[in-house]
Amino acid sequence: MAITSTETPTHGVEITAAAAAKVKSLLEQEGRDDLRLRLSVQPGGCSGLVYQLYFDERTLDGDAIRDFDGVEVVIDKMSVPYLDGATIDFSDTIEKQGFTVDNPNAQSTCSCGDSFC
Predict the structure, then answer these.
(1) Cβ proximity of 113 and 45 under 8 Å
(2) How many folded domains does the chain comprise?
């Protein structure tokens, strides 16, 4: 007899304290507690793949979810292998502001910094 699991898959992506705090702040500004931070990999850009990072109220079949002290990070099942070990960070400096993804699986990136392979 096969045993089926209803447990939600997890992923190997991390989120820094700065990024988690920014996500919480943005969700509080929106007055929404039903949104998750979704990270995915899509075809495009100079090097072949681009990151997409956005708030999503949906969960899709096969999504991998991790909760970081109230911040849920969701990754679709096709993106999980590309993102294993990646870290989502947030910078707020004069030089740079916004979310970044540090991905050890990216073999190369393009000069614009928006895509990888």
Answers:
(1) no
(2) 1
